[in-house]
Write a structure and sequence with these properties.
The structure is a homodimer. Chain A is an alpha+beta fold. Chain A has 4 domains: 4-90, 2-Layer Sandwich (Uridine Diphospho-n-acetylenolpyruvylglucosamine Reductase, domain 2), CATH 3.30.43; 97-215, Uridine Diphospho-n-acetylenolpyruvylglucosamine Reductase, domain 3, CATH 3.30.465.10; 220-329, 2-Layer Sandwich (Alpha-Beta Plaits); 336-421, Alpha-Beta Plaits, CATH 3.30.70.2740. Chain A is 34% helix and 20% strand. Chain A has 15 helices and 18 strands. In chain A, the strands form 4 sheets. The first copy, chain A, has a 7-stranded antiparallel sheet, sandwiched between helices. Chain A has a 5-stranded antiparallel sheet with strand order 5-6-10-8-9. In chain A, a hairpin with a 4-residue loop joins β5 and β6 (106-109). Chain A is globular, with a radius of gyration of 23 Å. The two termini of chain A are 21 Å apart. The relative contact order of chain A is 0.12. At the A-B interface, β9, α7, α8 and α15 of A face β9, α7, α8 and α15 of B.
Chain lengths: 464, 464
């Protein structure tokens, strides 16, 4: 544990009452949504300014204290977990939207701004922040940048990386860097901004971010299509992708749909039962586009790729169709699922999914596997539900075996062991399935440049 | 100069005849389009495989030989110049398109593939490579990546960075890294791919790149609009940007137009003379969009922002209107222009341009300034034409003074001293106008990670 005098020194760096050491705070701020680690930080500190963050980092270097950045704590990889006496740096009080520039379509934010807050702010100003995912109501922009958050609109809008036009950071050495200055074109050497995006706070902390905004989408329209098997989903994607500018292309299985229907609060999309479902979205900004969508639907039915389908005719219907996909994660959480977030290139998805499916059902025929994900980006969420009669410990022990099989298949298909959740603690020991040992050595050397004393979120992504 | 035995050793690493040391080759391969440096390389080597590139880099480390990467040599910053006895590594024989994946919309290329070759290949396959600029007929993909090339479609499609889904590189230490493996979503630590984009070959050499492709654009349509002054261009941009998904928004001045008209091979857009012109482009994929464009044009005329204008009605007219902008660089090259490529955020453009204009005309009232550029990205090309009676040396000496003023104004407006041409040799000594000394120190430390012996394109971007 950290010496009392050292914590007292920390208290002088921030406003009164902005260092907490009570048990409830240590418990609450020491964990994220992974829930599998026992939180044990030494203190939580709440800076309000860039200068306070810088002072905290300099203090941590002086006393060799490990720092863990903390946003909305909705992460699924343990990157915001503090279980080794670290000091948690929470950005809860750096939560202001600082400046909107309508001409540049940018908004300058503090890192503690909640994703939904930014989305709403953009909407109120006739613009659009397109990165969206299940935890947008709690996650913070700083955390989104740290994990390069993706979500449901990546096929059209890309990852968080695409929307960061400038970053102010405090590096692990305590330097303040203003990266890219919000420029669209800037060819003046290495784009260090890119290094901080997805670095999970291991190089430094984001203290300000200028995010790009887009025009508001026009008449978003959704289709849910039932397919006879998984393989049919790919030609459906190909057919629609060629005709429309899709804003989303998701999928889920009949098992997923059954769990949603069992809730009782979401209307059934259509009566026909099919093994898989594609959910796609586009801007029906004029009649020609809507007609093109219907013609493509008919083509897919003629080809036997689609058995039944529905297209939203109102905002209410649009929202109801999206619930089929968006409620999945929360709905199946009651079955204590083993979850995995993996990706391959889009064209490899069918073979990849079938191979994982086969190996799980061969070894554990009684496990229920619920697949869903962002098929348009090659990003699959594998969920294995715990059989009711199987004790939790035994289930997770069996899933640890699954982990290894899954990652071996990921490696075989040149895929990613973490598509959008990050590495953190959960996937740290599996990193070599996606990145070569030489590449990991370069990553460690880059970390040493920005954080020579290894105080920034140590033990996350890799151990040094 | 390099010892003869060392060059003999180099010859054993590649195919026979693939090391050149004759005067004409040294002259040709030692320079780029900057033309202001005297080429003086020791040899030119032409690898054909990744393994040969790796062998060359290991050889260079062993003998401490500086390497300069060489693509189409169309650069405007001197990044591909060899004037200190370096060995030039030309990618002219690594020019194959290796694999197209229609589902993933990606194409795997060697670095020596010419930009136009990639554009044509995409088009033949019903797809589109959107990065385009004046030198696309000669520039190579490896060079595009090294400078993060931009060009005329950035407002819609972004820079080259957006289109690189995977890179294979040989680092300055001679390691082969496969970066990102063409994935759309991959949250497994630092995205080292991003570091190599825009690094001007100072960290390592790209030996293979997987580039993303887009769907082909539909019925591209162009408008040229005459405005009463420069300030009117901004509300015109704002009006059209709000209504249409623009694929380009360029501008040029009456002086630029006059030079184009003097060629005699480009039709006049319309009879009315105006001080400035905006050129914008969009997909008129249906009548509603074309009508929206015309309505916005009428609104701009009513507001007094636009005096006259024209909209293309055919592919021929589209091409003719684009010539007004695309022929500019080549046309004014006959007046030995001092050129500068600078950027600010879009909203600052009018004040920024006026300030530079004022300082140049105050000190050099007899200099003709031709402005043009990518206004939708905040990227301006400043061109000062040499008065006919002024000796070249005297003109460039005066322009050196202009340089400093321009960069001081760039710094004041938080802009970039190089928007899309890179730093190379030309802007190396001005880098601090855009990047802080601390940031430059971090860049140097990052370089040392990938190139500890400083053999990769030394002296470019910064001196170590």
């Amino acid at each position: 544990m950290i010496d009392v005098a050292v914590i007292e020194a920390l208290k002088t760096l921030v406003e009164p009452g902005k260092v907490l050491t009570d048990a409830a705070s240590l418990e609450a701020y020491g964990k994220d949504w992974t829930r599998q680690y026992t939180p044990a930080p030494s203190a939580i500190v709440f800076p309000k300014t860039t200068e306070q963050v810088q002072a905290i980092v300099l203090w941590a270097n002086e006393h060799r204290v490990a720092l863990v950045p903390s946003g909305g704590r909705t992460g699924l990889s343990g990157a915001a977990v503090a279980m080794n006496g670290e000091v948690v740096v929470s950005f809860d009080y750096m939560n202001q939207i600082l400046e909107l520039n309508v001409t540049d379509r940018t908004v300058r934010c503090q890192p503690g701004v909640v994703t939904k807050q930014l989305q709403n702010f953009a909407e109120e100003n006739g613009l659009y922040y397109p990165v969206d995912f299940a935890s947008s109501g709690s996650s913070q922009i700083g955390g989104n940048i740290g994990t390069n958050a993706g979500g449901i609109k990546v096929i059209r809008y890309g990852m968080t990386r695409n929307w960061v036009s400038g970053l102010k950071v405090v590096t692990g050495k305590g330097d303040i860097l203003e990266l890219n200055k919000d420029l669209i074109k800037n060819a003046t050497g290495y784009d260090l901004r890119q290094l901080f995006i997805g670095a999970e706070g291991t190089l430094g902390f984001v203290v300000e971010a200028t995010m790009r905004l887009d025009r508001a989408p026009k008449n978003l329209t959704c289709m849910v299509l039932g397919t006879p098997d998984f393989d049919a989903i790919m030609p459906v994607l190909h057919a629609f992708h060629g005709k429309l500018d899709l804003t989303a292309f998701e999928f889920f299985s009949d098992k997923g749909l059954a769990r949603i229907m069992a809730r009782g609060d979401v209307p059934e999309p259509f009566a026909t039962k099919t093994p898989f479902y594609a959910l796609l979205e586009f801007e029906a900004s004029n009649d020609e586009i809507a007609n093109e969508a219907l013609a493509t639907f008919e083509h897919c039915v003629e080809q036997g790729w689609v058995i039944d389908g529905v297209m939203s005719q109102s905002q209410q219907q649009l929202q109801n169709l999206w619930k089929l996909r968006e409620y999945l994660s929360e709905t199946i959480s009651h079955w204590t699922p083993y979850k995995n977030d993996i990706s391959v290139t889009v064209s490899k998805v069918p073979a990849f999914l079938n191979e994982i499916d086969a190996i799980v059902s061969e070894h554990y025929p009684d496990f229920e596997v619920v697949w869903y994900g962002h098929i348009g980006d090659g990003n699959l969420h594998l969920n294995i539900l715990k059989p009711e009669d199987l004790p939790k410990e035994e289930f997770f022990a069996k899933c640890a075996t699954v982990n290894k099989w899954v990652f071996e298949i990921v490696e075989k298909y040149n895929g990613s062991i973490s598509a959008e959740h990050g590495v953190g603690l959960v996937k740290r020991d599996y990193l070599e399935y996606s990145r070569s040992p030489v590449e990991i050595d370069y990553m460690k050397a880059v970390k040493a440049v920005f954080d020579p004393n290894g105080i920034m979120n140590p033990g996350k992504i890799f151990t040094v």
